[in-house]
Amino acid sequence: MKKFIFVLLGMSLFLNSFAVKDAMPSKEVLNTPTFYEGKFISPASDKKDPQVCNFRNTFNLKQVPESLVINITAENRYILYVNGKYVCRGSESGDFCNWFYDTIDIAEYLKVGKNVIAVTVVNFADFSPAAFFSGNGCSLWVQPNSQEYAFLNSNSKNWKYQVDKSVVFRTGIFYAGGSEFVNVKNAMSQNWKNVDFNDSSWNKAFESLRVRNPNWFGYARYVLKPRSIPMLEEKPIRLASVRKVNGVKGVSAKDVDFINGKPFEIPANTNCKIVLDMGHLTNAYVDFSVEGGANANMKAIYCESFTSPKLGGNKFGKGNRNEIEGKIPAYPLSDFYVFDGKSRSIQTYNFRCFRYVQLDIKTADQPLIIKDFKGTFTGYPFAEKAKFESDDSRLKKIWEVGWRTARLCAWDTYFDCPFHERLQYIGDTRIQALISLYVAGDARLMKKALKMYNSSRMGDGIVQSRYPCKQTQFIAPFCLYWIGMLNDYYMHVDDSVFVAENLDCVESIINWYVGNIDKNTGMLKQDVPYWNFVDWVEDWRIGVPPVSDKSGSAIISLHLAIALDDASKMMEDFGRKDVAERYQRLSKSIKDSVYKLCWNEKRGLLSDASGIDRFSQHANIFGILCDAIPEKDQKKVLEKIIKEAKTSYAKHNPDDIMEATFYFKFYLFRAMNKVGVSGDVFGEQLKPWHDMVNIGLTTFAENPEPTRSDCHAWSASPIYEFFATICGVNPSSAGFKTVRIDPNMGKLNYVKASIPHPKGTIKIELKKSENATNYEYADISLPDGVVGELVLGKNHVKKFTKSLIIYAWVSQRAHVKPLHAK
């Protein structure tokens, strides 16, 4: 079993079982007073071009130690082998001030006598995913935990290298990374990883950078830090079917099964097309093996779905995702291969996101045999700990598709989408993190995200909208979501030290926003800097809500009020009462100003800005969430914006209420939960998700049809609502020490769920009379040390610990007391 050793500081967090061993890298070795012993080594060139380089270190052991721990990192990625055996790949994505290294025990791979550590380092340079930072070129750093094994330090004395000239990287798709061009004629022997390989012709490694300990003397290009999250999950996967074979005489799809390791021969001088189907979207390193086929060419095209050829591959109009006839790959990303007639096994260096793989193959004078074609799934090792059952079988499919969406959008950072961008946007991440907490009970990736955003903070006080990312971008309202996300962490995770460490970032964001308040209106100015994206509403230019000549955006002003409320609560709990009170006063002032200037008495709604007949769900959702709209009016307003919202805005009509897309539905659901709108309404709001399932989507899309991305984690929010709204399970004090349970089953008659909690598992079973608000019983159990609060009526809460069984009460939506309890 591999021993991956990584540091998890402040770990009063939700944990999963993927850590094999929890230990610190050696302080003696890694806290040296000047430079680290290991140096970054590179090819003997100052070129920063994209390339693949292989490194070797051979050494002898008189005996195999019980433990031999190395620390390793690379730019951008490494693949580690010991004595020809695959160990792992890394390292964790960060930035130059958070350059993560892995701590790995390789003892189990060693033997008495001659050994070799072999490492492939891939530097994508300009063609890297946008989340990868590059600065030193293709480089590797290794340092053992013990001076006894100093011969493993990466330097020119101990290590050799050879550049793999068979691989070239080129522009790929958007921010997710480039295409791979592989001419295997130029490939080195595939046994280079083995101990008996003759590396006498290899070059001594070039010491490209000495790494200074940042605790001594200051500057270091890379500030090395231990891994902050578990090693990524990897597991072998097989594609589901061969959907199409064109161009091979007498052969149809049913005759081809190389996806299950049964070789398939493509004749010489053949031009063919083969379409493979995974059956659902996945993230995987693609592995395949071939034989023969000298001078044959293969283009491997990866896509989420197919689209109409009339629109072109990069246009919308995908239709049913199960259908491929008469269509072409949508947004294709391709890798290219030239074969040399030998037996070859190949794996992509970057993982591919795909449901479909189309192979365009052209053979020359020799047949090409495809021996196997499979993949290695990769992702953050979330364990599906939560369970949800109900008497509506359709919700089971939403659970399956939603959780797959969340998993594919979590790697060593969260992703907005795994195919197009692979970037960690704050607005998306807040929703993803809550799903992670409720389904996996794992806060580690959430904690890392909060840290990285704080690391992106600029001199004016706000954080970048997506990070890590080598291209700077600011979406100003996303800073406010960062405050909300920190408050989510505070409420769900017992880690007050971490929250306290980040309160200065809360203050800097609010200070920036305070400077953008119009003193005349009490709302935000019309020209708040940066991209003021709120939602992909068709009627809004690039997702930015309207302002008027009288005021800035009511939506973003109310968002600031919500952030102030969250910040005030945290500040007060951490003894910053003066700051808390100041935030409360400012929040109230903003709410009062928005209501005064934007409330339209005739429509009974908040307008999007003062003095204009432009209305949206968004302004009124935030008005409800922060109580800018009086409590007595909130239910009426919510019902109105749900009933009258419009999804098509070819020409603006003043009567239209702009509807939230999938992303902002999360906040609609939160408003519904707050007001206590019947669960029937929540069930009706799930129609777009049922529709996505019905058109063959195996993950939830970015936006309503037509859409770019078929997998966007912000659209997985319903599975969070299964627990937070239907079961009504939410923290009512910091650290989830108390649990408020306020079920809202709607038309469901039976629900059974288990939810991971920092101290164990919450279990809940609810049964309700058919098509009624009368609950027959609730059976709830809590972890030791947790206090529960079951809401039985508007002013009636039943407190309990450990377990509670209660019979015959009417939903609190009707505001009556229970009939019987024990």
Which features characterize this protein?
822 residues, alpha+beta, Jelly Rolls, eleven-stranded mixed sheet, six-stranded antiparallel sheet, globular
Describe the structure.
- There is one protein chain.
- With 822 residues, the protein is of the alpha+beta class.
- Among the domains are: 208 residues, Jelly Rolls (Sandwich); 145 residues, Jelly Rolls.
- It is 23% helix and 30% strand.
- It is built from 15 helices and 40 strands.
- The strands form 9 sheets. Strands 11, 12, 16, 17, 18, 19, 20, 23, 24, 25 and 26 form an 11-stranded mixed beta sheet that branches. Strands 6-5-8-3-10-13 form a 6-stranded antiparallel beta sheet, with no helix packed on it.
- A hairpin with a 3-residue loop joins strand 11 and strand 12.
- Helix 10 packs antiparallel against helix 11.
- The longest helix has 22 residues.
- It is globular and about 80 Å long.
Radius of gyration: 28 Å
Major sheet, described briefly?
A: 11 strands, mixed
Q: Tell me how many strands there are.
A: 40
Shape: globular
The CATH class name of the domain at 3-166 and 187-230 reads Mainly Beta
Number of helices: 15
Corresponding CATH superfamily of the domain at 3-166 and 187-230: Galactose-binding domain-like
- How does the helix and strand content classify structurally? alpha+beta
CATH fold node name of the domain at 3-166 and 187-230: Jelly Rolls
- For the record, the CATH architecture of the domain at 3-166 and 187-230 stands as Sandwich
Helix content: 10-25%
User: Regions with pLDDT < 50 over 5+ consecutive residues?
Assistant: 6-23, 814-822
SS strand fraction: 25-35%
| Average residue-wise pLDDT | 92
Termini, distance in Å? Answer: 50 Å
